[in-house]
Every structure is written in C-alpha cells, then in structure tokens.
Design goal:
This protein is an alpha/beta fold. Helix 3 crosses helix 11.
Length: 431
C-alpha cells in the first residue's frame, strides 16, 4: 500500500503524530504534508499525487483534517473515494447514520447525482474517454464532445420502461415503437427491448470506457422492470447472498459469506445471516419514531445549507475577483515572485471555494427530498423480506454500517432510531 499522510490546521508536529501511529503497528514512515488553517497548498499536492496514481491511501489525524467545515470535508472525502483512495483516520470519527438513509431514499426516488458515490458506479481510469456515437447506448448522443441525452431516443427508452412495468408484453411494446432504430441501424426486436430494460446506464452512470452518461430513468422505475424480468425470464444465477462482505479478525480480512465457506475454522450460515439482517432492518423501519427523527434531521440540514449558501457565493466571487486581478498583473508584465505566489495561492483558494459551493448546492438538493418519498422508502424497507436481492442490498447499505466476526461472535453496526446513531448488536445462530 502506497501511503501518504496529510494534516490540516495548527497541529503541532503532525509528522510525528502520523508516523508514530504507523510505527506502533510496525509500519514504515511515510511522507506527511501539512497545511495551516485556510491554506490549500499541501492538500493540492496530495490530490495531484492521487491523480498521478502515486498513492492509494491517505492517513489523517482526524476526519476534521479534510476541511474547515462539513461541506468542504464531504467534497474532499468524495474526491478521494471517487479515485479509489482508502482514507485512514487515527482518531475515530462518528459517521452520520441518518444521512445514509436520506441518500438511499433520494436515490430510490430520483436518480444518482453528485452528492455521494453513485450506487453501483465504478470510477474509470484517469482521463475520460471521448465518446463516439458507436460506443454509447441507445438514448444518448454526442454533443460538444460529451455524451448527452437524445430527446427522441430517450423518450423511446422511457416508453419501453413505463409500458413494461405497466404490464405490457414485449410484443405490445414493439407495436408502440414501430419506428425505433438501434445504434446499428436496425429496427428494434425482442432482444433489443430486453437489452434496454437490463441496461443500468440509464440510471446515470459511467461506461467501462469512462464515458459519463446522464440519467434517463429513475431507480424505482428500473428496479420494477428488473423485478418483472427476473420473474418472467429468471435472474442471473448466483451463489452469493446480497450482503457480500464481512470483516473478520482472522485472515483473510474479507470473505464471501457463501453458505458453508470456512474462515479459519468458522463457517457462515448465509441464509440465517440474511434473515437476521432483514429482521433488524424491518424492526427499525416499522418503528414509527424513525420517520419524525429523519424528517427533523432533513429540515435542519436543509435550513443550514440554505443559510450558508449566500455567504459561500460572496466568498467565491471575492476570491475569483482577486484571482483575476492577480492574473491581470501577470498579463501586464509583473513576473515578481510575490505576484506569482499570490496567483498560485488564489488559484488553489478559487478551486476549493468552487468545490465547497458545489457541495452546498448538492446538499440543498439532497435534503430537499419530498417527505412522501422518504416515507415510501421506509415503507419499502419495512417489507425488505418481500423484495428482490438487488433492492435488499440497496436498503441494507442504508441501515447497516458493517458486520464483523470478532472472537467467534458476529457483530453488526446498525442504525438505532432511539439512539439516533449506529449501535452494535450481536447476531446469534450465524456461525
């Protein structure tokens, strides 16, 4: 693992803190970058190292080192996550359990946006591929070098999905869209319609070549179509349960919980394991207080995001204005070291200010969720045992933080409405 350290704020000797933590675990020292408050130079250095694939993990004294406020921290955390970087915190930080539920409800009711790691998305290699009409799905076109929604084709995609979940057969759907032509120039057939119905990219994802496709349909629409396809044509055969990874204090660290698989003498009954998770999530979702708890949380976060937005706009405009003035001085022939340093500092401030502003907008979008949409998601979670494997996995990720096997016991970290946070529960009859 290629590791670097980063510290933010007026912390005394962060290099000693980080490398002392590593030496206690028998690990070698790593380069440590440190920023004083309101400086961005070292964070920019770490991010450039990430972009150049020079590191794959970053160690920080605490979660607060990611930024001055929660919006900056969320945006910087997302940068590392999207680039596949593991973040290691010396000081354990509390994870916002209610936020995970709101994110899941928002995704289910609409589609993936930029406020968190996309459900099911895999980030491409560095350097996005240039799209061509031949390598993007039906429903999209290339506009100004980027993939965009094709109005006519995307309407055809929506018609296919809406007709299918309304109960129409594929033959009936073909009569509704008699003039639909695929990217290969052929009229739609039964197989073409099935391919459209199974294509996850319509949720708004990146292709394997790194081409970002805008969303065309909602997750709930795609899920209903998927459930009907599985009923009529059978799902893809799999031996793996929906909750796939469990951390263990015995090597290997991660293992598939397939029934009967052994881990250092331990075997997991995956059927009992999944039913235990479903019982816990169903009990949480049927607890009437969870709705009022999450709604109150949503209202509070939305008010805060709206209140800081105007100040964030003013700050971003001020920094942008100062940057343009410094750039003008350089254009007029002022190549002094002071001007160059000022320009470099303002360039970093401008970038991070714009990132923070984008995050505040994203949080405003996230917490503008309709209460009815939130209630629909919680009602869905209450009936988790009736759902498809796909949706069980989706809902489990919203409520369960992790599952670990420790000292021969199965420990689950799950949201508790009464406590308003994650709590630890022991699952019996799993091993």
């Amino acid at each position: 693992m290629r590791l670097v350290g980063y510290s933010r704020g007026a912390r005394e000797n962060p290099c000693a803190i980080i490398n002392g933590f590593l030496s206690e675990r028998g690990l070698e020292s790593v380069p440590v970058f440190s920023d004083a408050e309101n400086e961005f130079r070292s964070l920019r250095t770490v991010q450039n190292a990430v972009k150049r694939e020079l590191c794959d993990a970053v160690i920080l004294p605490s979660y607060d080192d990611l930024g001055d406020d929660k919006y900056s921290r969320l945006e910087n955390e997302l940068f590392f996550i999207r680039n596949g970087i593991k973040l290691i915190y010396i000081e354990r930080h509390k994870v916002d359990a209610k936020r995970a539920i709101v994110i899941a409800a928002k995704r289910f009711s609409s589609y993936v946006t930029d406020w968190d790691e996309s459900f099911g998305i895999s980030m491409p290699e560095f350097g996005n591929a240039q799209p061509e009409n031949s390598n993007i799905p039906f429903g999209y076109k290339v506009k100004d070098g980027e993939a965009a929604v094709d109005p006519t084709e995307s309407e055809c995609v929506r018609t296919i999905f809406e007709s299918y979940i309304a109960g129409k057969s594929i033959a009936e759907i073909l009569r509704i869209i008699p003039d639909a032509v695929s990217k290969r120039g052929k009229l739609f057939s039964n197989m073409t319609v099935k391919t459209v119905l199974k294509n996850r990219h319509y949720l708004g994802m990146r292709t394997k070549k790194g081409i970002l496709l805008p969303p065309v349909i909602k997750y709930s629409t795609w899920l209903k179509a998927k459930e009907r396809i599985e009923r009529e044509y059978g799902g893809e055969p799999t031996l793996e349960p929906y909750f796939k990874k469990v951390a263990s204090d015995r090597p290997p660290n991660y293992f598939r919980t397939v029934k009967g698989s052994g881990v250092s003498g331990l075997s997991v009954d995956s059927d009992a394991f999944e039913k235990a998770i479903e019982r816990e999530i169903s009990a949480i979702s049927s607890d009437r207080q969870i709705y009022s708890i999450v709604i109150e949380y949503v209202e509070r976060e939305l008010d805060e995001a709206r209140s800081v937005y105007s100040d964030a706009v003013k700050t971003n405009n001020r920094i942008t204005g100062e940057f343009r003035k410094a750039l003008r001085r350089v254009s007029d022939g002022d190549y002094s070291e002071e001007t160059q340093n000022t320009l470099e500092r303002l360039a970093d401030e401008k970038t991070f200010s714009a990132m923070r502003l984008r995050r505040i907008r994203s949080e405003t979008e996230l917490f503008s969720i309709d209460p009815d949409e939130l209630m629909a998601f919680l009602s869905r979670a209450e009936r988790i045992n009736e759902l498809s494997i796909e949706e069980k996995a989706f809902i489990t990720d919203a409520f369960v933080r992790y599952v670990r096997i420790r000292s021969g016991k199965v420990i689950m970290r799950i949201f508790d409405p009464g406590a308003g946070r994650y709590v630890t529960k022991e699952l019996d009859g799993i091993l």
